[in-house]
User: Fold these one by one.
Assistant:
Number 1:
Amino acid sequence: MQTINDIDFKDKKALIRVDFNVPLNENLEVTDATRIEAAKPSIIKVLEDGGSCVLMSHLGRPSGKEDKFSLKHIVAKASEVLGVQVKFVEDCVGDIATDAVNQLGPGQILLLENLRFYSEEKEGNVDFAKQLSENGDIYVNDAFGTAHRAHASTAVIAQFFPDQKCFGYLLASEIENVNKVLKDGKSPITAVIGGAKVSSKITIIENILDKIDHLIIGGGMAFTFVKAQGGNIGNSLVEEDKQDLALEILSKAAAKNVSVHLPIDSVIANEFSNDAETNVSPINEIPDGWMGLDAGPESNKKFAEVVLNSETILWNGPVGVFEMPNFSKGTIHIGNAIAQSTEDGAFSLVGGGDSVAAVKQFNLSDKVSYVSTGGGAMLEMLEGKILPGIETMLA
Ligand code: AMP
């Protein structure tokens, strides 16, 4: 499979699937341009080669053509971020799209209208994918955020570019970084898995057990494990029907020589509120009427020690209710330990869901090795699934 660096885009039109699904405020202004910035290197590479870019993306979840979901609202911000005036066409297929593409010259960028104005996009319709494919000479997939969807523009379209296709820099680096943990990770490899529910993390845990040496289980999901082992967890979050599964994970981990680290203690509260009364309790002796909302000081110490002795770290999910300042200390503590370990030479990947938000909130993004840009897509990669947007490119 060729990379974007192998292709000379001179006088070529690159049809790039980007993820410009950015947040807009009530005035329809872009409030966070991270995703546009993430696509910039691939776009600049094409322009510097002397080619042109036809960008296609979705925005939100429109039902049919809805003005508030038009990509025209992001043209000004995209032009500012990319440093080139972005042209816009009010359709992604048909005569007006074809005319706009034909008029595009080297060094120029054209943004097509929201792909999801057509239901055929999400349906993965082959005819629609074929029409889209006529908008460019070379297909570049750089939309990691939608790589887990088998949509027309993310997967189906690749068949119309048998030799003229490649991943963009962003998608390539997401794959490369996940492989640095799951394929070529240096031991000791530690996974820190937190968050609310065992049920949403079970497939990840099962997939990574063969690859890791240490598993830190934190956050709300830890209480299902503690209860399954006979502990008193008071009113803490629990999935009663997942207790057997929790015990199964523990015995599978033991069979594979993976050391599992559950919290030793917890910061407990008498209600689910930042203003609640708080105390610290051993993890298995939480009184009735109280709930564990953060990792306690002994757990923080133990978790940090494991992380500091690791060469490779995967972090998915906070170890407490980090959105509330009084229960954010455990997540900050483990985030700082991962940052320290990274400074000492470890490779650290933060991916999938709320740990990415935590890393941003606590200004740790630059102190870990890689922060994934795709929530659902990264979760599915960690679950061991082959993403449709990647698979069809390799076919
Ligand atoms: P997830 O999306 O599964 O990674 O879960 C993240 C959510 O888990 C965050 O919103 C946290 O507030 C929540 N969480 C973490 N620890 C706890 C806890 N001990 N009790 C309740 N919710 C928690």
Number 2:
Amino acid sequence: MSRITAKAYAKLNLSLDVTGTRPDGYHEMCMLMQSVDLCDEVKINLTRTGEIRVRTNFRFLPSDGRNIAVKAARAFFDVLGEKDLGADITLKKRIPVCAGLGGGSSDAAAVLRALNRMLGAKLSPERLEELGRGLGSDVPFCIRGGTQLAEGRGDELRILPALPDCVFVICKPPFSVSTPELFRHVDERRGHTHPDTEGMLEAIERGELRGVTQRLYNVFEDVPGRHRGAAAEIKSRMLDLGAMGTAMSGTGPSVFGVFENMEQAEAARKALSQRWRDCFAARPAAPEL
Ligand code: C5P
């Protein structure tokens, strides 16, 4: 197989907690994560040129070795010890960039999964996750996606039962947030609110959507920054439009609401898109390995 088209799903944080700092400079995280069918399309052509190239429809993204999709392909070829292998990668981006939706991480994971399949390399999911760890903290989650608990740097994973049927409406305000700033604010704060991760975990295990939507919470939502006002405004509007619960995803600024069905979600997406350009409706999803 020398050509493949793969889907790279966006991720949402149903909950996000920062529980401490680590000796390696990263933070201890505790997150319930969900992949959804808002996706980038990743096309790969295998070549024998030894070169890895990427083209994308987002012109501001790098197309050289700084692109995480290129780094993923390089890491994969290095593991196989294949110096002559190359790849032409085309990324059709739909997931907003720098949005807290894991777009880059998911592209990297899709490249690892696709190359594993194309080359019949039979690396285990755990081995792919290990490769992903070197590329970014969210890449390991994106290998298997679905619903997972992520701890440690975000790369200690436990696969959970799929979420009950529901629809997410995702809304991205038109600015980006500095990740180091957010972590700095959380480090400086004492006695802040934590999400009820245990309660949400139990609700997921029992398949109770209401128990999940009541507990959506991200510790970055409340720290100072431009995202805070925008998140509050979007969340309040989503609740007015019938959302069962809302939260910011990752380091923001994207906010999502959970709706019972596509009809409600589509109506909410339409209403929100009058004010915010980047609005999407998406269902829970999991990639094929
Ligand atoms: O691993 P990744 O490149 O996604 O991380 C981006 C930045 O987020 C890191 O440089 C670090 O500032 C912060 N981070 C952290 N602790 C984590 C994950 C990310 O401090 N567990």
